């Protein structure tokens, strides 16, 4: 009985005593899905419309972890589908996507398995408006930001989970349309995603 207990104890404790380099430097990639939100600072309301249906987000990312604090990442986020309706009619549809490069800064805890982090960087945001009624451009520079928590259990040999919120902020101009409050002035654009991903580090 004692031998069985000691064997079980070793199986539990062994992952915690493995070489710290396992979750140290190296390449990684991940894919996640989640919920999304969109805030155009009132542009749709000024057009006289309102937000209609929307869908969730998907994110693919990859990067290199330099040490237990710093990683460099790049990611593509599909923020899903949004629509604007006016008098019961769809007047605009958006399928926004962003490509970003950013620093991921955090710290490893609990034998390099748990890592809270923040991200900050820059990218390009494609609005992908299908009817061209509100935005006067399709592509904007964006500031990428976020925070999250990563769990990389040693016993999964490189596999792990990440839960995070990440978003893109940009500034855009709207079409000046007769009969609306749009005057071609600037609006702040916020797109964000709360997602859960699975990732693998080589």
Approximately how much beta-strand content do the residues carry?
over 45%
Give the tally of structural domains. 1
Largest sheet: 8 strands, antiparallel, barrel
**Class of secondary structure makeup:** mainly beta
Going across the biggest sheet, name each strand in turn: 1-3-4-7-8-9-10-11
User: What is the tally of helical segments?
Assistant: 2
Helix proportion: under 10%
Instruction: Let me know the number of strands.
Output: 11
Shape: elongated
Provide the low-confidence segments as ranges: 12-21
The fold-level CATH name is: Porin
Cα end-to-end separation: 39 Å
Tell me the radius of gyration: 22 Å
CATH architecture: Beta Barrel
Order of helices and strands: HEHEEEEEEEEEE
What's the pLDDT, averaged over the residues?
Answer: 81
CATH class: Mainly Beta
Describe this structure as you would to a colleague.
- The chain is mainly beta and 202 residues long.
- The chain has one domain (26-201): Beta Barrel (Porin).
- Helices cover 8% and strands 57% of the residues.
- It has two helices and eleven strands; from the N terminus they run αβαββββββββββ.
- It has helices at 2-13, 43-46; strands spanning 26-39, 50-54, 57-65, 70-78, 82-86, 89-94, 97-106, 114-126, 139-151, 159-173, 186-201.
- The strands form two sheets. An eight-stranded antiparallel barrel has the order 1-3-4-7-8-9-10-11. Strands 2-5-6 form a three-stranded antiparallel sheet, with no helix packed on it.
- β7 (97-106) and β8 form a beta hairpin.
- Residues 12-21 have low confidence and may be disordered.
């Amino acid at each position: 009985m004692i031998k069985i207990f000691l064997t079980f104890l070793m199986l539990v404790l062994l992952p915690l005593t493995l070489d710290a380099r396992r979750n140290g430097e190296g390449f990684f990639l991940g894919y996640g899905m989640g919920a999304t939100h969109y805030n155009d600072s009132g542009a749709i309301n000024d057009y006289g419309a309102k937000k209609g249906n929307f869908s969730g987000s998907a994110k693919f990312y990859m990067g290199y972890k330099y040490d237990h604090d710093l990683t460099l990442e790049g990611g593509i986020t599909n923020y899903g589908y949004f629509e604007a309706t006016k008098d019961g009619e769809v007047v605009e549809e958006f399928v926004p996507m962003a490509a970003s490069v950013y620093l991921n800064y955090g710290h490893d805890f609990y034998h390099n398995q748990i890592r809270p982090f923040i991200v900050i960087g820059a990218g390009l945001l494609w609005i992908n408006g299908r009817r061209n009624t509100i935005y006067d451009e399709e592509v904007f520079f964006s500031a990428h930001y976020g925070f999250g928590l990563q769990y990389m259990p040693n016993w999964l040999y490189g596999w792990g989970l990440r839960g995070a919120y990440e978003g893109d902020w940009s500034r855009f101009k709207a079409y000046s349309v007769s009969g609306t409050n749009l005057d071609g002035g600037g609006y702040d654009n916020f797109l964000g995603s709360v997602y859960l991903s699975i990732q693998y580090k080589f």
